[in-house]
Structure formats: C-alpha cells, structure tokens
Amino acid sequence: MKLFLAHIVGDFFLQPENWVKDKYKKKLRSRWLYIHIAIHIALMFLLLWDFSYWFLIMLLGASHFIIDTLKLLLQKKKTKRFYFFADQILHIAAIYLLTMALYNDGSAPSISITKPVLLLLICLIFLTQPTSIILKTIFSKWDISKLTKDNESLEDAGQYIGVLERVLVFIFIVVGHWEAVGFLITAKSVFRIGDLTSAKERKLTEYILIGTLISFGIAIAVSLLFLNLKSYV
Q1: What is d(CA 145, CA 35) in angstroms, rounded to the nearest whole number?
Q2: Does 45 lie in the same domain as 86?
C-alpha cells in the first residue's frame, strides 16, 4: 500500500502539466521523463524507509520507465485516453506483481501506521487530483472550452467543487449517512438549475450531467471499496 501511495503522489501530485506536455513533445529527449522516474524512486525509498528493499524499488523504477516510454512512443492525440488508463493499470499491476514475487514469504516491509488508516489515506488522495485528471481525460473527447467560452467562472472552481463533493460523498457513505449524498446531489442541482433548464445550453447541460454522474459514481465506488476492504487489511 505504501508503494501504491508513492505512485499516486508521484504521478498525480508531483508531475506538473508542463512536464507532461514536454514529455509528449520530446519523448525520450525530455529531461522531465528521467526526473519523474527519479521522484518515484525517491518517494518509494522515503515511504518504505528501509534500504534493504532497494532491489524491489529499482525494479519498480525500471518498470515505470519502460511503461512510460512505451506510452510516449505509442500514443497519438486520438489514443491519449486509452494509453492513459492502460499506463495506470500497468503501473498498478507492476507494483503488485513485483512485490508479490519478491516478498510472498511474509517478509514484506512493515507498516508503522495501521493498514485501515493507510487505506483511508489512499482513498481520500485518489478522490482529489487523480480523479480530476481521470475526468479531464474522459472529457478530452469533446472541446469543453467552446461550451464554457461565454460562461464566467472562477479559475479552477469546477475542479475544487468536484474534489469537495467527492470527499463529502466518501465521508457521508463511510459514516453511514446515504441520505446526505442525496441532499448533496439535490443541492448541486438547485445551483445548476439555470444551466439545466436553458434549452440553448443543451450541450453544456449534458456535460454537467455526465461530469456530475461520473464524479459521484467514482466517489461511491471508492467508498464501497473502502468499506469492503477495511475489514481485510
């Protein structure tokens, strides 16, 4: 779980968008590709805090480099969404498979904090920036800038709203108050009533509905996953 946490932080929080653009443009000639891998390796050492696991960490660093390189070389503008999700699935699989292959005898790194707390931390972090990037990737199919061109809004306000609503949904479900989730959806619908009733803004309305449903859906799925897994960790 510490390795999963390192991956989430390294891929979604410590990788600015200008790094991603530079890597997409320059491929293997981009220095940010190698800095990105170095950050991942440093995070894994920092979170495990045991240099006896250096071989596992270096293997994961090498696998991360190979997966990222394949994505950069193979992806095109039309296939960026596919390779984004394929890239994440391969990274997660590599972490799990390499760890199980090397430490399936019970000698895996010890965890100083309780496993349920670590699982809770992973879920909450995933519902912030990582989920925002996932939603942005999904909506890359459409040119959203045209839909929101004449709509004044605070900078990054939509992203902050999405993060807050997902975290609130997670908290409400974990503490057993599903009715609060319904209230949250109703409250958001009231604030969006102008967009949802304007016939000329049909595309924007569809964008809002799809974004809301996917955002709430991910939050609910993560909440249920946490509730079902916490008794096993």
Answers
A1: 31
A2: yes
For 38-88, the pLDDT digits (tens) are 999 999 999 999 899 999 999 999 999 999 999 999 998 888 889 999 999
Render 34-83 in DSSP notation, one character per residue: HHHHHHHHHHHHHHH--GGGHHHHHHHHHHHHHHHHHHHHH--GGGHHHH
User: Does residue 169 sit in the same domain as residue 86?
Assistant: no
CA distance 221 to 233: 18
First to last CA, the chain: 10
Q: If we measure between CA atoms, which residue out of 216, 211, 117 comes closest to residue 170?
A: 216
Helix (H, G, I), strand (E, B) or coil at 142: coil
Residue corresponding to tokens 């709430």: 216
Q: Decide which of 64, 89, 110 is a domain's last residue.
A: 110
Once rounded to an integer, what is the mean pLDDT over residues 186-214? 71
Which pTM value belongs to this model? 0.73
Q: Are residues 98 and 153 in the same domain?
A: no
Closest CA to 159 of 12, 40, 19, 39: 12
CA distances from 155 to 61, 163, 219 (A): 35, 14, 23
> What percent of the chain is predicted at pLDDT more than 70?
85
Same domain, 146 and 54: no
Domain that holds residue 149: 141-229
